[in-house]
Design brief:
This protein has 17 helices and 25 strands. The protein is α+β, with helices and mostly antiparallel strands and 846 residues long. The protein has a 16-stranded antiparallel β-sheet with strand order 10-11-12-13-14-15-16-17-18-19-20-21-22-23-24-25, covered by helices on one side. Strands 6-5-4-3-7-8-9 form a seven-stranded antiparallel β-sheet. Keywords: Cell projection, Cilium, Coiled coil, Cytoplasm, Cytoskeleton, Differentiation, Flagellum, Spermatogenesis. InterPro entries: CEPT76/DRC7_peptidase-like_dom, DRC7/lobo, DRC7_C, MORN_DRC7, Papain-like_cys_pep_sf. It is found in: Cytoplasm, Cytoskeleton, Flagellum axoneme. It comes from Chelydra serpentina (Snapping turtle).
């Protein structure tokens, strides 16, 4: 009975869905606008752009008219559509020649405009798809179950940065074909999530974990004379029981995990779509072969995600096209796209419109192939060239990407925000917010990505639960910083710093610090040091916390431990593997590397004592001050003198280590200070080739333009007639007499002479004025010398220096003017005598 009841409930649900589907179809037939508004209200979307209001006056003539070849193509398309409708009356009408932005019918293949862009990022399919997805704003189809009646050109789509799935696909296909891919626009059917760009149930691509390929362990060949392993004396029954228990626990955990996953999937399962299988969508197909594409795949232009051709999101294909031909799918899509074969040269599966296709046909007998070639020669028709202008993307448009410079994408339990470079003052270009709950109320983690920052920070990660912040840096930071993990920027708190060891002299790779200890890891050092661990004690006075970091107020050191890699140039019993300086206890412990064929290592322990004993006698070295364990009985113990020298070296090394630890603490404080300044400033770097944003380059360019303008103005002034003022005074000069020429010469020379004298007088006056002011200042200094402060004396000396410099320059200018004035006067006289207007009158007076 329960089974029958469930079956009846399923039938009722199917009937309800069918009724809803019919109602939606009726609503669409009656008023498509109401139908669109109803669907958009559910998705919180609004249409604000009116394509009929765009300005088409500046568009080329090819956008507004059809050539003779295009008109013939439209006739062929209509004939093809009539034959198709007669043979397949149950199929939907083909999407062949929609209206463009000028209201002119254009064949869809001629709307594709293959263009190769000059940006390396747009040379691969993923870069092209990501650019189209970021740059354009998605508009849903006016009717979700029929193709649009209009299809604007890719250039107009780029200009207004918006479009439906068909506009997205044509633009992306144009870029991909231009980049060398075998790409096609697809008209078909997809799920509601794909059609409406609903990614709220999809995991963010930035959170998807990369699948690690596990390498199978290489089995070592068993040597013929190898030592047999010891027998396993454990009880096999007990081992079986333990394994059985572990298997039961693991099975229970897997079952619980599976039930939890099923429960979550059931809770997140979307509601039934009344238009499932009817929603029209356009996407891009990339076939294998060109550009070393190993396998054909789909690209959704809305999200830039790639899918397999057998993916469940795509439910069927009506037709595909590129810039050369148009194909209609003849295969059955009852199982979606899973069983489709994309051999476009197979006329049984794909009906092509034009015979001039570049896709190979099936193998035919030679006679039939010859007849087919003759038919192609007679009936062949080449696709007209695209009516669309060359697709041009400026550098500014390419960098801005998102409309208005910002785009927000909602994923499952995550929100991704994107910004154009230089839009945010701190250089942020991407932010991923991860939430605990599906409603996206409780923030779990925030990841920020940066570009063009002066401090080289490229990523920041903040865990809201633990309040731990991790900053990542590109190579080039002033301190070689690679990553910085911390809770607070206060000194002597828990933090981890990673460095680019190849950029540092000390080879520091990582430093882990808290209030009680500090651990440092090194690599590539000549002394083979790779580990140093320092333990600190408590300060006596807590108030003295590193206001000024000196060795006197540094944290007291309790112990320093160092570890070294093996140095092959030294014997193992002389190569130190670990040394521990117990500073408070006054002991130094050395552990050497193990010798070959030995399982224990040699050790030494030095005990530091006072320089004098209780009686005041000086202590040099005793046997009690060194406890040693030497591997190998045949090796003799070293003499006390040698041990004494070794102890002195270790004590000196201890002092150096204390200083190095203090330097490490100082470096931490310096890095924290630098990071606070960098975070407060948030300066961005600008390339020297970016003339729009580079202020220095902009100022330099403006200075050069100003100098060129001044040079042109000076040239114009030089080209002016120097005799014009004197000719105007004389009136009509068409017929000049000798007397007038001589008078003109005398007037010009006298005027120039007065100008030279005035200039000399001006320089002399300024020279005398500066000299008098200096003398007055010197008299004032003599009177007030005893009561002057140091600042007044400095100001007086500065004034005297500037005044003497000015007087010296004026003196040089005056002397130079006196020397050059007669020469300039003679040059002007020669110029007047050579002037073609005066030469014939003055040639006897030279």
């Amino acid at each position: 009975m329960e089974v029958l009841r469930e079956h009846e409930e399923e039938e009722e649900e199917e009937k309800q869905i069918f009724v809803i589907s019919n109602e939606l179809q009726d609503l669409e037939d009656k008023d498509p606008i109401v139908f669109l508004q109803t669907g958009l209200t559910h998705l919180n979307l609004t249409i604000e752009f009116d394509w009929s209001s765009i300005d088409t006056s500046q568009l080329p003539a090819s956008y507004k008219t059809n050539s003779a070849k295009e008109q013939m193509l439209l006739q062929l398309a209509d004939n093809f559509h009539r034959q198709y409708a007669h043979l397949c009356p149950d199929r939907q009408p083909l999407f062949l020649h929609p209206l463009n932005e000028c209201g002119v019918e254009k064949f869809v293949s001629t709307t594709v405009r293959p263009t190769l862009q000059p940006y390396p990022e747009l040379y691969n399919w993923d870069g092209c798809a990501q650019f189209v997805s970021d740059y354009l704003t998605m508009e849903p189809l006016s009717s979700p179950i029929t193709p649009p009646s209009y299809l604007p050109s890719p250039t107009t789509t780029l200009k207004y940065q918006r479009g439906n799935c068909f506009g997205f696909s044509v633009l992306l296909c144009s870029l991909l074909i231009g980049a060398g891919y075998d790409a096609y626009c697809v008209n078909g059917y997809a799920t509601r999530e794909i059609c409406m760009m609903d990614e709220t149930r999809e995991v963010c691509p930035l959170l998807e974990k990369s699948k690690k390929v596990l390498k199978e362990p290489v089995k070592e060949k068993v040597k013929k004379y190898a030592v047999k392993p010891p027998r396993d004396l454990r009880s096999k029954f007990e081992l079986q029981q333990v394994a059985k228990k572990e298997a039961d626990i693991e099975a229970a955990q897997k079952k619980k995990q599976k039930e939890e996953e099923e429960r979550v999937m059931e809770a997140e399962k979307p509601k039934p779509d009344p238009l499932y299988g009817l929603r029209v969508h356009a996407w891009v197909l990339v076939l294998s072969g060109k550009r070393e594409v190993p396998e054909s795949f789909f690209i959704d232009p809305f999200t830039a995600h790639s899918y397999s051709t057998t993916d469940d999101h795509f439910l069927g294909i009506e037709s595909i096209w590129n810039h050369k031909n148009y194909w209609v799918n003849v295969q059955d899509c009852w199982n979606g796209c899973k069983d489709l074969t994309f051999d476009l040269g197979d006329p049984v599966r794909w009906e092509f419109m034009l015979l001039g296709t570049d896709k190979p046909l099936l193998l035919l007998p030679e006679e039939e192939e010859e007849e087919l070639d003759k038919e192609e020669e007679e009936k062949g028709f080449d696709m007209p060239s695209s009516w669309v202008d060359l697709i041009q993307i400026s550098r500014k448009e390419f960098e801005t990407r998102c409309p208005q410079g910002k785009k927000v994408i909602q994923y499952k339990n995550a929100k991704l925000e994107k910004w154009a470079p230089y839009l945010n003052s701190n250089g942020m270009v991407k932010r991923l917010t991860i939430y605990e709950d599906p409603e996206c109320f409780r923030v779990l983690e925030v990841k920020d990505w940066f570009e063009n920052r002066e401090d080289m920070m490229n990523m920041r990660q903040l865990n809201k639960k633990t309040e731990v912040t991790t900053e990542y840096f590109s190579p080039g930071h002033i301190q070689g910083l690679k990553a910085h993990t911390y809770k607070t920027m206060e000194p002597e708190t828990e933090r981890t710093m990673e460095f680019y060891s190849e950029t540092r002299v000390d080879g520091l790779q990582k430093r882990v610090e808290n209030a009680k200890e500090m651990t440092e890891y090194f690599e590539g050092r000549s002394d083979f040091l790779h580990y140093r661990h320092t333990m600190f004690g408590r300060r006596i006075k807590r108030a003295q916390i590193l206001l000024i970091n000196t060795e006197s107020n540094a944290r007291p050191i309790v112990q320093i431990k160092e570890q070294f890699h093996r140095n092959p140039e030294k014997p193992a019993d002389e190569d130190v593997a670990e040394r521990i300086f117990m500073i408070l206890e006054g002991r130094i412990m050395l552990t050497y590397h193990c010798k070959d064929d030995y399982i224990t290592a040699s050790k030494k322990e030095f005990i530091k004592q006072k320089d004098v004993d209780n009686k005041g006698n000086k202590i040099i070295m005793t046997s009690d001050m060194c406890i040693s364990y030497q591997v190998g009985s045949c090796v003799k113990n070293k003499k006390l003198l040698h041990l004494y020298e070794m102890m002195l070296k270790l004590m000196e090394a201890e002092k150096q280590l204390k200083h190095q630890v203090w330097e490490s603490e100082t470096e931490v404080l310096e890095i924290l200070k630098i990071r606070e300044e960098e975070a407060a400033a948030s300066k961005l770097t600008v390339s020297m080739y970016d003339t729009e944003r580079n202020e220095k380059s902009k100022q330099q360019r403006e200075t050069m333009e100003r100098l060129m303008q001044e040079e042109r103005q000076r040239q114009v002034e030089q080209d002016l007639d120097y005799l014009a003022p004197f000719l105007i005074q004389m009136g009509s000069t068409e017929k000049m007499s000798k007397w007038q020429a001589l008078r003109l010469k005398e007037d010009c020379l006298n005027d120039f002479k007065h100008r030279l004298i005035d200039k000399a007088n001006l320089i002399q006056a300024r020279f005398e004025k500066e000299t008098q002011e200096l003398q007055k200042k010197q008299q004032w200094y003599q009177q007030n010398q005893l009561s002057m402060t140091l600042e007044d004396e400095d100001a007086y000396l500065m004034y005297c220096s500037d005044a003497m410099f000015c007087i010296r320059i004026l003196e040089i200018r005056l002397n130079r003017h006196k020397e050059m004035a007669p020469q300039k006067y003679i040059e002007l006289e020669e110029k007047l005598c050579k002037d073609p207007r005066l030469a014939e009158y003055l040639k006897f007076n030279v």
